[in-house]
Amino acid sequence: MLVLSRRIGESVVVGTDVVVTILEVRGDIVRVGIEAPRDVPVHRKEVFEAIEAANRDAASPEADAVAALTAALVAHKRAEPPTV
Amino acid sequence: MTTLTATAPVVATPVPMTPPGLTTAAMMNVREGERVHVTAMTETDVLPVVEMPDGLPGFPDLHSFVLVPLEESGLIQELRSLEDDAVRFVVVPSVVFYPDYAPEIDDVTADKLGLSEDADTDPLVLLVVTVGDTLAESTVNLLAPVVINSSTRVAAQVVLDDTSLALRAPLSL
C-alpha cells in the first residue's frame, strides 16, 4: 500500500482522472472529496461490501421458497386488498 | 389490483407470442435484440431486456436481465440474468410494500439512467428480496434499490447515501 501524508486542501491523483482531496480533519474523522469520471463508481467500502453480501444471500433462492413466498403474498393481498 | 399498475408501471409487459418452430423448452431465454423469450409462470412470453451497465454489487459482470412476473399483478417478480442462467433475484415494487419510500438518487446515477430533469420518465423502483423460509422471515433491501428507467429499460442497483436505510427490512404488506 502506498502511504502519503497530505495536508488539508491537498490532493492525490489516482490514474489520470481520479482526484481525492482532503477537505477536513476532525478527531478521527477525515472528510475527503472525490472527483472521478462517471463510469468510476465511488462507494464507502463497508457499505458496498454489505450490499455485495446481501446480494449474494438474495441471489438464486430455491424455486420452492420463491413459490411459497409468491403464494403467501397473493393470499395476503386477497385478504387485504391495497388501498392505493 | 388495477390501481397497482397505475402507480407502479410494470416493466415486464407480457406479449404472448409463439414463434413457429420453437418448443417451449428451446425458448428459455432466447434473446432477440431488445426482447427475450422466457418461460414466465406457465406461458412463454416475450419480455423486454433490462440492461444494467454496472451490473450489481457482487455480480459486476452481469449486465443483461429480464424481469419476469411470478404472478399476474406484478406484486412479485424475478430479475433473471440472461448471461448466467443460475442467477436470479426476486424483486418487489417498493410502492406496494413501502409506499412512503422515496430514495434520493445522486445526480451521476440519475444521469446514467437518463432520469435527470425528465419528468416524463417515471422510474420503476424495485427492492431486492432475500427469500426466507416464511413471509415473515423474508426481507427487502432498502439501502440499494434497483431503479429502472421504464422507457429505456436501463437500470442500476443504486447504493443510496442514506446509510440509515435497512439492508434487511421486513417484507411486510
- Average pLDDT reading of chain B: 81
Could you describe the largest sheet of chain B, including whether it forms a barrel?
12 strands, antiparallel
Radius of gyration of chain B: 16 Å
Strand portion of chain B: 25-35%
Major β-sheet profile of chain A = 3 strands, antiparallel
**Alpha carbon gap, first and last residue of chain A:** 54 Å
Number of helices of chain A: 2
Residue stretches of chain B low in confidence (pLDDT < 50, at least 5 long) are 1-27
| Level-1 CATH class name of chain B | Mainly Beta
- Count of strand segments of chain A: 3
Q: N-to-C SSE series of chain B?
A: HEEEEEEEHHEEEEE
Based on CA inertia axes, which overall geometry of chain B fits? globular
Tally of discrete structural domains of chain A: 1
Q: What's the architecture of chain B, going by CATH?
A: Roll
**How much of the sequence of chain A is in beta strands?**
15-25%
Class per helix and strand makeup of chain A: alpha+beta
Radius of gyration of chain A: 23 Å
Average residue-wise pLDDT of chain A: 91
Annotation, overall tally of beta strands of chain B: 12
At the third CATH level, what is the topology name of chain B?
BH3618-like
Tags for this model:
heterodimer, A: 84 residues, alpha+beta, three-stranded antiparallel β-sheet, elongated, B: 173 residues, mainly beta, BH3618-like, twelve-stranded antiparallel β-sheet, globular, disordered N terminus
Short overview:
Chain A has about 80 residues and is an alpha+beta fold.
Indicate the topology.
The complex is a heterodimer of chains A (84) and B (173).
Chain A: E1 11-14, E2 18-26, E3 29-35, H1 45-58, H2 63-79
Chain B: H1 2-7, E1 15-16, E2 30-32, E3 35-40, E4 43-51, E5 64-69, E6 77-81, E7 88-93, H2 94-97, H3 107-112, E8 124-130, E9 139-140, E10 146-148, E11 155-157, E12 169-170
Antiparallel strand pairs in B: 1-4, 2-3, 3-4, 4-5, 5-6, 6-7, 7-8, 8-9, 8-10, 9-12, 10-11
